[in-house]
Amino acid sequence: MSHDFTDTHCHFDFPPFSGQESESLALAEQAGVQRIIVPTVTADRFARVLKLAREHQPLYAALGLHPLYIAQHQEPQLEQLAGFLASRPPKLVAVGEIGLDLYMENPQFERQQRLLIAQLKLAKQHDLPVILHSRRTHDQLAAALRRVPLPRRGVVHGFAGSLSQAQAFIRLGYYIGVGGTISYERAQKTRSVMAQLPLTSLLLETDAPDMPLSGYQGQPNRPERAAEVFRILCQLRPESPDDIAAHLQHNTRALFRF
């Protein structure tokens, strides 16, 4: 049985995809990756990502201000985000990529937290789910999600935390994004977490062109490798591939309302 996948996290507005959109989408489709969600990282990319979604049937947009670029996010950028969300673009499916990061240099963490709360409130106001980034900040992120409860919830993308941290997000109604980390034998903790979480809580992603899979180090990651992440997830889990694929598809549709 051929499966129908969604890459729920791909930075398709960056090289090597920009300028190679049709070829890249053809490769993804050959691997069964039918839909790709493109989260933004800075305000100057909002219009570009919406245009990509308008022009290419498989692409969907998420708009948000990523914590790694905190120095670029000021009040005007937040106002731009609010304006774009209010205009309700047709293929906008989430607010993202937003979140917290303590792995970076000079994190300006209080500003990060204020920016996150502001964006969670916008997601609530516009009845959208969120795509969340979190590095070394799972407990602080969970606290923020408790502070601003979102009816549409969201996904903690590229998750590599502990089982109890994943369970805390799941209790809040959030999904967990499974990516290429599970392709590495040494990522025992993450592999074990993804083997144990309920299938009802998982989404498939690549984070392309970042987070290359094992065997592809040094090359840009690509959306068609979502099929490879799926194959590895099937090796880690007791359920049948058809069952796993059906759950992933159902979870994706439930969260993003395709």
From TrEMBL:
Domain of life: Bacteria
Database matches in CDD domains: TatD_DNAse (cd01310)
Keyword Hydrolase attached: yes
One Pfam family this sequence matches: TatD_DNase
Matches recorded under InterPro entries: DNase_TatD-rel_CS, Metal_Hydrolase, TatD-like
List of residues binding a divalent metal cation 1: 9, 11, 97, 207
GO function term, MF aspect, one: metal ion binding
SUPFAM superfamilies documented for this protein: Metallo-dependent hydrolases
EC numbers for this chain: 3.1.21.-
Oxidoreductase listed as a keyword: no
Binding positions (a divalent metal cation 2): 133, 157
Broad enzyme group: hydrolase
GO cellular component: cytosol
Keyword terms: Hydrolase, Metal-binding
Family, similarity comment: Belongs to the metallo-dependent hydrolases superfamily. TatD-type hydrolase family.
Protein name: TatD family hydrolase
Origin species: Serratia plymuthica
